[in-house]
């Protein structure tokens, strides 16, 4: 067993957990950290896809009671049906555009320089949304309309661009549409379940042939780290948004992305 590879898997699993649900871009951070750790290539790409399952299962676990209640009362609870319908409406735009643009995005945009630029731009957008977003018209996700869900779904399409952040795009899109910070964050978590399961299984289906038995320990360590770290991050963010804005995350993105742009200006990225 290669201890160095196990350590890299642990680091990347924790990076996935920390960045998947915060508005700072998990894909972007995995690309950048993987590049610095020299954990790159087709094997690394498949690994980064796989550990997303660990992160999203953390959301499933935290919301297990709510999800079970929705599933068991779907036939007689209007709010449960509304939530499911809104998730379907919000899921469709990114699913369609993801299938159409996946190859082009992967080929042309998955590199640290693009990600660094997206981090800076995304940080500026968060600052603007926090300053100019409309008053909280929707306080809870069961008050959302189909139009609200569609707006969030359209915003999620922006996250197809590496470095934008799926959670950041959906939360900011929701806030622009009048959702409270908490409602936008919670709906982002729920929307992550079908979106990330679909994206992960689709990618794994295409890349499964690259895996070998020797990959199991590495993938297992990354998966567990992403799951356990995800439990902490989701609970932290739910508590955080009730009292604070996303401005600190915006400035983190701007500073981090700016430093990366300077670094890659003097140390050009040569690809995988």
TrEMBL record:
A Pfam family reported for this protein in Swiss-Prot or TrEMBL: BacA
Top-level class of the enzyme under EC nomenclature: hydrolase
Topological category with respect to the lipid bilayer: Multi-pass membrane protein
Transmembrane region(s): 46-63, 83-102, 108-129, 149-167, 187-205, 217-238, 250-266
Catalytic activity: di-trans,octa-cis-undecaprenyl diphosphate + H2O = di-trans,octa-cis-undecaprenyl phosphate + phosphate + H(+)
Entry-linked InterPro entries: UppP (IPR003824)
One annotated GO molecular function: undecaprenyl-diphosphatase activity
Highest rank taxon of the organism: Bacteria
Tagged with keyword Transmembrane helix: yes
EC number(s) given by UniProt: 3.6.1.27
Function of the molecule: Catalyzes the dephosphorylation of undecaprenyl diphosphate (UPP). Confers resistance to bacitracin.
HAMAP family referenced in this protein's UniProt entry, alphabetically: Undec_diphosphatase
Additional free-text comment from the UniProt record: Bacitracin is thought to be involved in the inhibition of peptidoglycan synthesis by sequestering undecaprenyl diphosphate, thereby reducing the pool of lipid carrier available.
Record protein name field: Undecaprenyl-diphosphatase
Gene: uppP
């Amino acid at each position: 067993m290669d201890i160095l590879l196990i350590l890299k898997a642990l680091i990347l699993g924790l990076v996935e957990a920390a960045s998947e649900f915060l508005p700072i871009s998990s894909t972007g951070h995995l690309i950048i950290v993987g590049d610095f750790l020299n954990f790159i290539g087709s094997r690394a790409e498949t690994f980064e896809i796989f550990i997303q399952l660990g992160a999203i299962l953390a959301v499933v676990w935290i919301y297990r009671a709510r999800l079970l209640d929705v599933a068991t009362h779907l036939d007689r609870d209007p709010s449960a049906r509304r939530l499911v319908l809104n998730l379907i409406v919000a899921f469709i735009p990114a699913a369609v555009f993801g299938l159409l643009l996946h190859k082009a995005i992967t080929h042309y945009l998955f590199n640290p320089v693009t990600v660094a630029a997206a981090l800076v731009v995304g940080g500026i957008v968060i600052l603007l949304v926090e300053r100019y977003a409309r008053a909280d018209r929707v306080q809870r996700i069961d008050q959302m309309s189909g139009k609200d869900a569609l707006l969030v779904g359209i915003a999620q399409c922006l996250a197809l661009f590496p470095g934008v952040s799926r959670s950041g795009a959906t939360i900011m899109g929701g806030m622009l549409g009048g959702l409270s910070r908490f409602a936008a964050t919670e709906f982002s978590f729920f929307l992550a379940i079908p979106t990330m399961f679909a994206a992960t299984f689709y990618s794994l289906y295409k890349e499964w042939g690259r895996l070998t038995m020797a990959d199991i320990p590495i993938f297992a360590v990354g998966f567990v780290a992403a799951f356990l770290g995800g439990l902490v991050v989701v609970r932290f963010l739910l508590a955080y948004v009730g009292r604070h804005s996303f401005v600190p995350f915006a400035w983190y993105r701007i500073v981090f992305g700016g430093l990366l742009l300077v670094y890659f200006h003097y140390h050009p990225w040569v690809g995988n």
